[in-house]
Amino acid sequence: MLDEHLVFVDLETTGATATHDRITEVGIVEVHRGRLISEWSTLVNPGMSIPPAIQALTGITNKMVALAPTFAEIQRELYERLEGKLFVAHNARFDYGFLKNEFRRCGIPFNARVLCTVKLSRKLYPHHARHNLDALLERHGIECEARHRALGDAKVLWLLAQKWTSERGPVLVKSAVDLLVKTQTVPVGLPDFAFSDIPESPGVYLFYGDNDLVLYVGKSINIRTRVMSHFSGDHRVNKDMQIAREIKRIDWKQTAGELGALLLESKLVKQLAPVHNRQLRRNSQLCAWQWTDNNIESPPRLATASDIDPARFGELYGLFRSRATAIEALREIASAHGLCNILLGLEKRQGACFAHQIKRCRGACVGLESPEQHALRLKQALTSMRTLPWPFEGRIAIRESAIHGSRTDENTELHVLDRWCYLGTARNEAELHEICESNHAHKAPVFDVDTYKILKRFIAKPPRGASIVRLVA
Predict the structure, then answer these.
(1) Chain segment 134-145, per-residue pLDDT in tens
(2) What pLDDT digit, counting tens, does each position of 54-98 carry?
(3) Which CATH class is domain 5-180?
(4) Where are the domains of the chain?
(5) d(CA 202, CA 220)
(6) CB atoms within 10 A of CB 43
(7) Which architecture characterizes domain 203-272 according to CATH?
(8) The overall pTM is greater than 0.70
């Protein structure tokens, strides 16, 4: 770590949201090959009032920044101090995000290799539970001459780097840093600043090749970080190597949260059939076992995709991507529970089934067990595979709002759903009305197994920022 050209950076701001709040102070400690080069700091006029709680925490008041330079006035000098160096910060996503947004407002694309000292501390000291700056100061016996001031906290990071190198050794520290800092290389088919405008927010990203051929669709709660990870210097995934050779353009669609990203990714993959997506493809071979204990004389029937009706999910078991996997799953259940392959329709023969001959069937095929007993055990065995009936009367929407720190953002989406089917996402009343009217006028939506799995998880435990809204039919 210490053999690189580093800048230890800390910022003070008016709040926690990089797109809304502004910087009030910048502190930088520059180190090259383990030698301190310079220390630099400046107050910044944020162009907005500093909340009283922030003034109390940092000691930076509105009066102090009133005559300070604006970010636009320091941007050239600051850029020169940061350019080409490893950007080191505590909870680096916060500081880096604020600087990117400030530079963007000035029309300057800013990109850097980033090292988060929170993550580095966790790597080097995994047995400790707390890695906030106050905990690290106490644990390592370091004093900060100006806590919650930019230069004071930046100096602490430099002291921590020296302490960690001394305690853990330069080889181990460098190994940990290398794991955390992957060099992102821009593929030859993309412009130099291809990553500059990609937001650090939830959403879906799309990679395009020649003739706007869709190569890949992905999702993330941080689109920018995920996109850049595809092009890290080590190219550990063969798929990423192929994409890097073929990519010509990147596009993205922001969402309020993770659920919107998951639903949109599943939808786009099926619509666009990207070259390098292997999962989430169209499930034309989808099938499920259909069986009811009201008719114990009939074996389970394999229902195909066109037959799968979410309204009958109480009598469907398992959702399989092919007939072969469905049959194999039923065979495994029969073997685990001593069920008869003949009564299950898996064997066509007279007399004892093969499993009974090797003592793995309790003998329903030869009269040692009644059909009723066999049906009861089959029902119990299938319980874990039973598809979940739609738990609502009619349509619902899942309201999902973006979360920033401790507050909910005004960016809110309504994901409209009916019987496990995704009907669309609305961002206002007009879009919601259009989705509902459009689905009233057309035939029932097509069931999708990936959407079902996504929704099951989210409905069972709605995450922070999400709530269920019942819609009037």
Answers:
(1) 999 999 998 888
(2) 999 999 999 999 999 999 999 999 999 999 899 999 988 889 889
(3) alpha beta
(4) 5-180, 203-272, 287-385, 396-470
(5) 6
(6) 20
(7) 3-Layer(aba) Sandwich (3.40)
(8) no
